[in-house]
Every structure is written in structure tokens, then in C-alpha cells.
Amino acid sequence: MNILRGYLQIIKTRLQQCSSIPTFLEELKSIVNLAVKQNKELKALNTAPYLYEKLIQEIAIVKWDKVVEIDESFKKVKLKTVDGAEREHYITVHISSQYPNEIPECSTDLPSEFILQWNNSMTLADVIKQFDKVVVRHQIFWNCLDEIDRSTWVLEPENPRRKDNARRIALGNNSSVQIIVNPLHPTHLPECRFLGADKVVKPLRDNMNKSVHLWNTSHSILHNLQALMEITFPSQISSKKEDFCLECSICYLYRLEGEIPDKVCEFPACSKPFHQACLYEWLRSLPTSNQSLTKYGFKNIYGECPYCSQPITARLEDK
Questions:
Q1: Quick one: pLDDT band at residue 4, thresholds 50, 70, 90?
Q2: Which of 230, 170, 232 is nearest to 204 (CA)?
Q3: How do beta strands 88-94 and 76-82 pair?
Q4: Cα angle at 109 between 104 and 113, to 5 degrees?
Q5: Whole-number Å distance between alpha carbons of 11 and 24
Q6: How confident is the model at residue 132 (pLDDT cuts 50, 70, 90)?
Q7: Which pTM value belongs to this model?
Q8: Which range among 26-40, 159-173, 256-270, 282-296 shows the weakest confidence by mean pLDDT?
Q9: Residues facing 193 on adjacent strands
């Protein structure tokens, strides 16, 4: 239900004509009151007209430069805040007809759950205040991931969002490492998973395992990872992303249903990359391949590489 449908042109005209924001707010308040009185659906729902005036007043207190979007029915208000590093963060407040007696639902771009503390004397200003506090607590988390995004080639996610706490970082030679960062302890050792030919990733994994006790929480994630692996990650200055975005040697696509090639033939003279799903289906079509089901819910299939005929294994999660 859009209570301001039919009034949008009037609002645009008044916005152009008003000399100040306070003047426009008074004009908007009058238009909303008129729309509420004339809206038969609102009368049928017994929705209190004062709610819309209250929301306009609350938004004015929050400041209009924090408002990103308001839907025409005033049921959804999207607000933004800017942190100390000039990063923008968004919270969408979903408002019911029982507001403020009923707690508004909030959706955010935070990497952890946002739990709003609420009572019926609170306003949108309290929402943004609580949101700001949580944003401040995540500054180190975003600083660490921004350094990774800026200094390395991130293969996944393709376009990281502020809520994303995982990164797949290119290491070179059809290899990469996927890290999952704890948003509440961002400088602690992240969960790491190496992807690529064993001859390439095993020395890196071994280096990390033997030096994991040297992880220093006073340093960034990137600094620690490079120090423990004893390498320097390919950078955006010294290389091109295309060098690491190699297409699957079966389907000839880089990204297939959101997945990128994460299996590489171990034979040094071959080293062809594959999507796990593509390789699995290829091997399954061969009469000489063997399959097994692990206790962890994965299907393993053993066969020959389609290019060099050397032994190769594919694994598919049993869904």
C-alpha cells in the first residue's frame, strides 16, 4: 500500500520550491496527513495517522543526509552511517503499524548479527546510535580485509560486500588459499583452506603449520599469512587478475553456477584446472573410474585426467 501514490509530483515540486529543509518537512508533513485522511485502506486498517508524522519528525532528528531510501508506505527506512575510514554502512529498518510499541526489524551489511535493544520510548535515532556502536567495533575487521582486497588478487567473492568474512586469495600456479575471518577477533588466525596442486600448496601448508605459533595478533592478517607461508602474494601492481582466472579445462568457463575452478591435475607437465563438478561428471562417465562415499558426506571418484591420463580424484558433496 503506497499512501503517497498520486502525490509524488506535488512533493517534487514542493522540494524544488522550498528554501530550506525545515520548510520542506512541514510541507511534507501536511501532504502525508492529507494522504492519510484520504486513504480508505488506512482507515479500514485503523492505522494511526500520527505514526507518519512521528516518523518524519524522527527522520529529521536523525538528519536527512543519513537517509538513503524511504518507501512510499513508510514501512521501510534505509539509513547509512560513515565510519572513520570513510566507508559507508547501511541499515534498513522495517516498521510495522504498531511502531514504536513493536520492535522494528533491522537488516544490515554487518558481518555479525545486529541485535537491537528496544523499548517503546526509543526512536530511529536510537537505532542509528546502536548501529554506529557496532560499526565501530568492526573497524579492525574491515581494515584487515580492505588491505587484502587492495593488495592481493581476490578470486572470490567477485565483488566483496561489507558482510563477507571469507576471501579466496590467488597464490599463483593455479593455487589459492581461502580464509574465513572471525569478525569479532579479526587479527586472530583465520580458518585456512589451500586449493590447488599438492606440489604447490603442500610446502605453503607445511610452512604455516610449523610456524603457526608465531602468529602475531598485533599485525594484520595479510602480514601474518605472508610471513608464515614465507611468500609474497601476487599483487595488483605486479600481475593481472587474468593470470589467475583460468577457465575450466572441461567446460571452458571460469565461473560455473557461481563456482570457479578449484581442482588441478597434480602431474607437473599438465596442471590443468577444473571445476570439481565438471571433473566429477567427466570421471563418472568413464567405465574405468571408481567411486566411494566418505563418512563426511562426500562422494569421491578416482580416474584419469582427461588431458594427461594421470591419476586424478574429484570430490562432490552428497546433497
A1: low
A2: 230
A3: antiparallel
A4: 65
A5: 9
A6: very high
A7: 0.73
A8: 26-40
A9: 178
What are the grid coordinates assigned to 49, written together? Answer: 495517522
Strands (E), the chain: 67-70, 76-82, 88-94, 105-108, 154-156, 166-172, 175-180, 191-195, 263-264, 273-274, 290-293, 298-304, 311-317
DSSP line for 87-99: -EEEEEEE--TTT
| pLDDT tens per residue across span 196-220 | 878 888 999 999 999 999 999 999 9
Place of cell 601492481: 237
Neighbours of 93 (CB within 10 A): 22
Question: At 290, phi and psi to the nearest 5?
Answer: -120, 145
Enter the DSSP assignment of 55. Answer: H
Residue pair 246/174 in contact by the 8 Å Cβ criterion: yes
